[in-house]
Amino acid sequence: MNPVVLVVNSGSSSIKYQLLEPETGTVAASGLVERIGEDDGAVAHRAGDRTVEHRGPIADHKAGLRLVFDMFTETGQDLADVGVRAVGHRVVHGGEVFYEPTLITDDVVAAISALSTLAPLHNPANVTGIESTRELLPGVPQVAVFDTAFFHGLPEAAKTYAIDAELAAAHGIRKYGFHGTSHEYVAGQVARLLDRDPSHIDQIIFHLGNGASASAIRAGHPIDTTMGLTPLEGLVMGTRGGDLDPGILLHLMRTADLDVDGVDRLLNRDSGIKGLSGVNDFRELRRLIDADNASARLAYAVYIHRLRRYLGAYLIALGRVDAITFTAGVGENSPDVRADALADLELFDITVDPALNTAKSRAPRHISPPDARIPVLVVPTNEELAIARSALQVVDSAG
Ligand code: AMP
């Protein structure tokens, strides 16, 4: 029997999880706990072709996980009996401390918790998920896989912010980068699709989901990425605006009476596509654009403008490129975004084939013409599988 790994991704009010076989990628069960801490909590658990649902208040992460464990039992997969080899936890911020998948101990939990100042929305939720799972599945090794890890070795020039160096050093200010598990996984899939050694490829990856980031990868190692100290920098996202003049914040704090919490809300929830158009989901944005809504059209134009800015920057940073790849919810499903991001770049040997771009497929695929010098690709990401594989590797090598 192939080993199974439980992957847990705890957000501030949600938990996404999967039980899967890292060796084959087969998913035995998956689900989502939503609105933890609110009266209208919900769990949807899918095992094979069965879906079990729960509605009602969910007090905290532990209560949510307990419900999930009950649902596993209800669908015939009692987690205490199915031989879970490891639990892999997605942890957002590893700071300077963690840059490899790490076996979780009390000290590791404390260190992840201490990094909460760098990721106040994410790391506390990750810690709660870890602590609850450790209690509910005692004896099963748990592994933390960090979203920042892939970008740990960014070159000095790319990771350094040009501010007072002593202040920066004292407060851990540097570009860390996020979505690393996805960028690393997709980079590997690109090498497979092109049938080339990853260490011989230079590539640009656009991870475009609710959060969005791009990376420039030379010979398997990232040399730049758009997200920074926090996941706020870079591309325009669902509810985050990405790059902006920091002076805007000073101005708003002085003139619009915004305090730290107000700025936090503005940057994390009320900006990006949502701030400009009122909706954060790309499918809704598309419907508004089709209805000729001017705010939605502008939001889309700003989104594409930013993508192209980073495409240009990363082409120059790399000097040459063997593949440009789109992944995640928007990147995998929106042919318009892909076509508009790469429009009118024939001079740079970058073209998208309209038929290939709009063809329906869930497989890793080319969307550039067959004779294109620079392949343009769509590669579905699978962070859960990557986390499960890392967790299994750590547990196996720990003996
Ligand atoms: P992710 O964070 O990778 O799960 O991506 C979520 C985002 O993907 C959603 O907010 C949607 O905007 C977008 N998305 C999902 N499906 C589609 C689709 N069929 N067309 C366009 N955008 C989509």
UniProtKB/TrEMBL annotation:
<dbReference type="GO" id="GO:0006085">
    <property type="term" value="P:acetyl-CoA biosynthetic process"/>
</dbReference>
<feature type="binding site">
    <location>
        <begin position="281"/>
        <end position="283"/>
    </location>
    <ligand>
        <name>ATP</name>
    </ligand>
</feature>
<protein>
    <recommendedName>
        <fullName>Acetate kinase</fullName>
        <ecNumber>2.7.2.1</ecNumber>
    </recommendedName>
</protein>
<keyword id="KW-0067">ATP-binding</keyword>
<comment type="subunit">
    <text>Homodimer.</text>
</comment>
<keyword id="KW-0460">Magnesium</keyword>
<feature type="binding site">
    <location>
        <begin position="329"/>
        <end position="333"/>
    </location>
    <ligand>
        <name>ATP</name>
    </ligand>
</feature>
<feature type="binding site">
    <location>
        <position position="383"/>
    </location>
    <ligand>
        <name>Mg(2+)</name>
    </ligand>
</feature>
<feature type="binding site">
    <location>
        <position position="90"/>
    </location>
    <ligand>
        <name>substrate</name>
    </ligand>
</feature>
<feature type="binding site">
    <location>
        <position position="9"/>
    </location>
    <ligand>
        <name>Mg(2+)</name>
    </ligand>
</feature>
<comment type="function">
    <text>Catalyzes the formation of acetyl phosphate from acetate and ATP. Can also catalyze the reverse reaction.</text>
</comment>
<keyword id="KW-0479">Metal-binding</keyword>
<feature type="active site" description="Proton donor/acceptor">
    <location>
        <position position="147"/>
    </location>
</feature>
<dbReference type="InterPro" id="IPR043129">
    <property type="entry name" value="ATPase_NBD"/>
</dbReference>
<dbReference type="InterPro" id="IPR000890">
    <property type="entry name" value="Aliphatic_acid_kin_short-chain"/>
</dbReference>
<dbReference type="Pfam" id="PF00871">
    <property type="entry name" value="Acetate_kinase"/>
</dbReference>
<dbReference type="GO" id="GO:0008776">
    <property type="term" value="F:acetate kinase activity"/>
</dbReference>
<keyword id="KW-0808">Transferase</keyword>
<feature type="site" description="Transition state stabilizer">
    <location>
        <position position="179"/>
    </location>
</feature>
<dbReference type="GO" id="GO:0005737">
    <property type="term" value="C:cytoplasm"/>
</dbReference>
<dbReference type="GO" id="GO:0006083">
    <property type="term" value="P:acetate metabolic process"/>
</dbReference>
<dbReference type="InterPro" id="IPR023865">
    <property type="entry name" value="Aliphatic_acid_kinase_CS"/>
</dbReference>
<feature type="site" description="Transition state stabilizer">
    <location>
        <position position="240"/>
    </location>
</feature>
<keyword id="KW-0547">Nucleotide-binding</keyword>
<feature type="binding site">
    <location>
        <begin position="207"/>
        <end position="211"/>
    </location>
    <ligand>
        <name>ATP</name>
    </ligand>
</feature>
<dbReference type="GO" id="GO:0005524">
    <property type="term" value="F:ATP binding"/>
</dbReference>
<dbReference type="InterPro" id="IPR004372">
    <property type="entry name" value="Ac/propionate_kinase"/>
</dbReference>
<keyword id="KW-0963">Cytoplasm</keyword>
<keyword id="KW-0418">Kinase</keyword>
<comment type="similarity">
    <text>Belongs to the acetokinase family.</text>
</comment>
<feature type="binding site">
    <location>
        <position position="16"/>
    </location>
    <ligand>
        <name>ATP</name>
    </ligand>
</feature>
<comment type="pathway">
    <text>Metabolic intermediate biosynthesis; acetyl-CoA biosynthesis; acetyl-CoA from acetate: step 1/2.</text>
</comment>
<dbReference type="GO" id="GO:0000287">
    <property type="term" value="F:magnesium ion binding"/>
</dbReference>
